[in-house]
Amino acid sequence: MAALDRVLELNFKSEAIKNCEDEEQLLSDGYDWALPRAFQEERHVDKVEGRENTPQCWRMKERMKTVSVALVMCLNVGVDPPGVVKMQPCARLECWVDPLSMSAQKALESIGANLQKQYERWQPRARYKQSLDPTVDEVKKLCTSLRRNAKDERVLFHYNGHGVPQPTTNGEIWVFNRNYTQYIPLSCNIKIYDLQTWMGSPSIYVYDCSNAGLIVKSFHQFAEQHQKEYDEMLAKSPALSNCPPPNFTGCIQLAACGETQSLPMNPDLPADLFTACLTTPIKTALRWFVLQNKDKLLPNITQEMVEKIPGQLNDRRTMLGELNWIFTAITDTIAWNILPRHLFQRLFRQDLLVASLFRNFLLAERIMRTYDCSPVSSPKLPPTYKHPMWNAWDLALDLCLAQLPQIIEDMKEHPTSPVPPGNGNGGNGNTATSSVADVANGSPHTPSPFFEEQLTAFQVWLTFGNDPERAPPEQLPIVLQVLLSQVHRVRALELLGRFLDLGWLTVNLALSVGIFPYVLKLLQSSAKELRPLLVFIWAKILAVDHTCQSDLVRDGSHKYFIAMIGDTTLPFEHRTMAIFVLANIVRNFRSGQQAVLQANAIAVCLEALDESDAELRRWVCICLGLTWAEFPSARWCGVRDSAHEKIYNILEDPNPEVRAAAVFALGTFINSSNERSEHSNSIDHSIAMTIISKLGTEEASPLVRMEITVALHNFVLAFENNFITIEQQQIAAQELKMASPAGGNSMRRISSHAKMRLLANANPLATVTGAETHNMNHDSMRRVASSSSLSSLLIAFSPLSAAGSVGGIYGKVWATITTYEKDPYHGVALLARTVLQNIRIKAKEAMKINGGNKLSLSLANSSISSTGSGGPSVSISSVASTPIKSNTGTVTSGSGARRTPSPDPTGSGDITKSTSSFQPLIGTKYIEWCWDRFARPSAPGSVVLGTPLTCCPSTTYVDPHDPIQHTRDWRYVRNSGIRRECFRRPKAFPGKIDEQMFSSRSLHSSHGSSPSSAASSPSFNFSLHSAPSLVRLHDYEKLVVASEGSVFSLYDLTDTSRLICKSDNSSDSRITAIDWINAHDESLIIIGTDDGSVRVWKPDLESGKPRLITAWNALSDLGLINKSSKSYGLHLKWDLEGEKVLASGDTKIVRTWDIKTELRKGDYPTGFDCPVTSIDMHRCEPQLAVLGMEEGAVRLIDFRLPPAECGVVTWREFGDGWIVGATLRYDRTVVAGNANGRVRFFDLRSKSPTKTCETGTDITALAIHPHLPYFAGGCLNHSVNVYGFMGQSAFQANAIRDSLFITGRMGAVTSLHFHPYKSILATADSCSVNVYKTRGLLTL
């Protein structure tokens, strides 16, 4: 009665109420939406490896600066040059100076001074030299001196030839003689050749004269001549190869007009219009705009009023400064959208002066083309004068000039506070008041809406997402300019963050346009509202291009992000991204590690380990692991803060990715020690043992197991000699086993005394732990009196148990890695095998060196010594003392080159042995995969710069327009219809199941009558080694999966000639359990084998090649139990709603695995000393499971109770036969049957069966329908009997004996399975897989 009382304590609801609730829930359309989808995390869907996102070359290899400027003015004021006819009136202004308003010499000096000031606006730190009406010698002296002082920097040569003849067709430019009596061409015979020689490279040339295009043409000709002469010189004298080659082709040239064009002479424009555009663009643009639009503007706008525009060019708050700001943004935008990326980088980002000149050159092209002049440049630029952005510039000027009359009128009304006008010379005008001052004086300046409108246009572009077919947004350079404004900065940063969030391509675009210096400078801001925006932007940048880490360290910006990590008032997402940025700073960058260590980042990160956010914990572990990776100073700082002990708690984290990060951090902690002190050894031993004890048998995630293998591999390399000794002992044990009497008479005989001596010498290692050494006295050993005792010792040292029998730290680590060598997940097994093979090779080489093939001799001569409580320092007299040739080809004592001993940074403990530095043998792509997640676009609809952020994977936004979503919606509607049909069945018995609808025999025969012809078919791989053993119908799809030994096959029920896929699950194990996962959605197949392994496969219905999603060892101690002579293998039951897997079989427990956390949830004893033959559960009671036992009993266990009390009731009404099947049905009844054909029905609240059925024949397989009144048994006479039950009676409905497709009886029945919602039965026998249905059932 105790068991029955336990059942009554479960407080079941009434059966009628619960059945009604179940039906209503199953029939609802939202039931499938509420179900979880297992194994759908990114680590399951994608490969855990990073992408090779090669960043573009946005960073200039070398920054250049124009340090010297030569201003050569050949004006000869008052004298017109020959060949030039000037119509009156004509253009006279030179650098905005009227040369006829003063004396010739004064005018020349004023023009030269003004030109220098205009250039100083763009490059104030350059060295300027004027040469006014110079001679040839003066030009030569000027150029050579500037080049000498500039060294490898750029020199600018500005030539104004308005007072000399036009350049000749040979490209000659003109200067004067000393007495100004004649014009002398430079290099009369050599032409521009001499000028190139004097100026050298790199240089930039500005030609403001008529026919200036001739100079550009001749320049290229002479550059080729220089190169040709250099090549000829090298051919004659190879010793001169050290001389640098000429590089005149890389020089930059700007010419005012083409080869046959003359400069415009409009009297309303300056004579040096080209120079005015290059040096005073705003003033020139305003003057030209007024001239072009005089009839369209307000009639009172004049040139004199334009001169009175208030403000200063370098003050963006004033009208003039705002116009200059807009002009810079527009010209940058035009250049970025038209020029190739490499040319844009060279001309607009390498040199500030060059960038300014080329921005202004775009204006010069637009203005001078209206006067039939086409400016020329080298390198040549595509036409830009018709770009649509010029319309935006005209609008900005129009809006500005519309305010000008009122502003001038207000200035007149306030004579006490005059607003001085600005000029276009940049920095030469008087100080202007800002718009704030204008408002105070009654002359308000309305800011231009240009930037706000451009941000809106950029936002519109972002709303359409990241379509690869679309061109990049043309407003991107403008967005960067807006970052300079405090008014629009927050909005600009938010839009920029959304742009960067579109992927690594957009990050490269932003970097190429010049985002980097802007966002780097903003890190100096203390504004709190910018922190989430900046950390998001920097996370996106560093996820694509980690080379920016050096810039952050150089500017001390890492402290900005460390402060964010420690600020607990910030959201978890912001702190997570700050840690990600910090991890980038320390990743493979020693300067970053040192800077972060000095900033006390380790202590700050350790404080964040206790936070509740999984992403934050994961990145804290990764950051810590990268901080002390191969950096001993950081390791000892972590030791002082007990970092490794704090990370121990994270090993039990429910998130597998967090656990993997924690193992990674502990693994690099081991790898970062360059010495072997007692303190260091004890820490490493503690880490290894903690990892094994917490995760060794608890871990289902292959991601974590791979990191465990890498971490333990670091431990193996650090204590390599110890593991070489373990391997030598295993070799010796194998040799002893081969030499034992059980090995046969052909084995060489070894005396008992020799065997005992060998075991005695091997035993010291067996008891070595991290804190003790066991020394064994050979003479004190008791004598072995019998061969049986000796055999028991030999068995203890068998190769399979040698590592485990060693005991202590090294034996447990070795045993763990050996276990992982046979891991069901290939990635884990490959890593472990690599480590073991490395040690095995070195062990064999060492033993051969010391004793040839006498392996036991080398082991017997080995000895172990210990340094004390800190852990043993191995000294192997005949093995480790002998140099071992490493796999790199060098001879070392261990692996790799030895490190230089260093003192203990903690100041405690003595260095007993300096370890050899080692190169890791294995590694994973987990860190690269984590990095790649930040480089990807966020989920559609997520709030990029709000909460939650894109880095948080918990965003559950559903795109209603996603085709996958439409497919899922259709699938769920179909599922609910199938369930609704099942529960709205008629009360009468559904009918016989005897109509065959599928047979795999027809599939086999369609490919030929012989196995060879079937095997040759591309769509079918005939299996000869095994017959079908298990079969499972899909809940909703028209699919059936069957197993054949170690192979599983997936069949299409609608096409009898189609085998979807056939794959070998494991070549060395037998499939004993198979089921569907996520049957309501994209389904997976879970398979259990008799070695205790579980594998989850994703079938590909198109290619027919399933992909392994995950695998783990569900029951490592699976094996024969006591007197049981039959192996039942592994039995599995998948619980979808609870996201757990129940595993049992040839064991005395039921183990539950939590699939969401991928951890072992608990072990529940079966209460029997026999195997479990079947296991089942139902969603009606998710906390209960029904077990069928080999002893003929059925046991009900409750997972809500403690393991010792979980068995609530046991039914033993079956006799001696083992339980073939036991099922918990939807109505909370248990139906079970044994091998003798006895089928019993039980109520959960009753101890006695409520219904019985004697089939009268022994059965080999049993299936009970979970919802319809059916059960079926496979008989020994190669037939299947289908039974029905209504009320208190059970009856045989029909028998299935033949195949309708192929004449002949079916084989021995091995498995049966009912469709959960249809009257359909699948059978597997020794010949085929067949599916039957009731007559009249048309479709699935």
TrEMBL record:
<feature type="region of interest" description="Disordered">
    <location>
        <begin position="865"/>
        <end position="916"/>
    </location>
</feature>
<keyword id="KW-0677">Repeat</keyword>
<protein>
    <submittedName>
        <fullName>Regulatory-associated protein of mTOR</fullName>
    </submittedName>
</protein>
<dbReference type="GO" id="GO:0009267">
    <property type="term" value="P:cellular response to starvation"/>
</dbReference>
<dbReference type="GO" id="GO:0071230">
    <property type="term" value="P:cellular response to amino acid stimulus"/>
</dbReference>
<feature type="compositionally biased region" description="Polar residues">
    <location>
        <begin position="884"/>
        <end position="895"/>
    </location>
</feature>
<dbReference type="InterPro" id="IPR015943">
    <property type="entry name" value="WD40/YVTN_repeat-like_dom_sf"/>
</dbReference>
<dbReference type="Pfam" id="PF02985">
    <property type="entry name" value="HEAT"/>
</dbReference>
<feature type="compositionally biased region" description="Low complexity">
    <location>
        <begin position="865"/>
        <end position="883"/>
    </location>
</feature>
<feature type="region of interest" description="Disordered">
    <location>
        <begin position="412"/>
        <end position="434"/>
    </location>
</feature>
<dbReference type="GO" id="GO:0038202">
    <property type="term" value="P:TORC1 signaling"/>
</dbReference>
<dbReference type="InterPro" id="IPR001680">
    <property type="entry name" value="WD40_rpt"/>
</dbReference>
<dbReference type="InterPro" id="IPR000357">
    <property type="entry name" value="HEAT"/>
</dbReference>
<dbReference type="GO" id="GO:0030307">
    <property type="term" value="P:positive regulation of cell growth"/>
</dbReference>
<dbReference type="Pfam" id="PF14538">
    <property type="entry name" value="Raptor_N"/>
</dbReference>
<dbReference type="InterPro" id="IPR016024">
    <property type="entry name" value="ARM-type_fold"/>
</dbReference>
<dbReference type="GO" id="GO:0030674">
    <property type="term" value="F:protein-macromolecule adaptor activity"/>
</dbReference>
<dbReference type="InterPro" id="IPR036322">
    <property type="entry name" value="WD40_repeat_dom_sf"/>
</dbReference>
<comment type="similarity">
    <text>Belongs to the WD repeat RAPTOR family.</text>
</comment>
<dbReference type="InterPro" id="IPR004083">
    <property type="entry name" value="Raptor"/>
</dbReference>
<dbReference type="GO" id="GO:0010506">
    <property type="term" value="P:regulation of autophagy"/>
</dbReference>
<dbReference type="GO" id="GO:0031931">
    <property type="term" value="C:TORC1 complex"/>
</dbReference>
<keyword id="KW-0853">WD repeat</keyword>
<feature type="domain" description="Raptor N-terminal CASPase-like">
    <location>
        <begin position="63"/>
        <end position="220"/>
    </location>
</feature>
<dbReference type="GO" id="GO:0005737">
    <property type="term" value="C:cytoplasm"/>
</dbReference>
<dbReference type="InterPro" id="IPR011989">
    <property type="entry name" value="ARM-like"/>
</dbReference>
<dbReference type="InterPro" id="IPR029347">
    <property type="entry name" value="Raptor_N"/>
</dbReference>
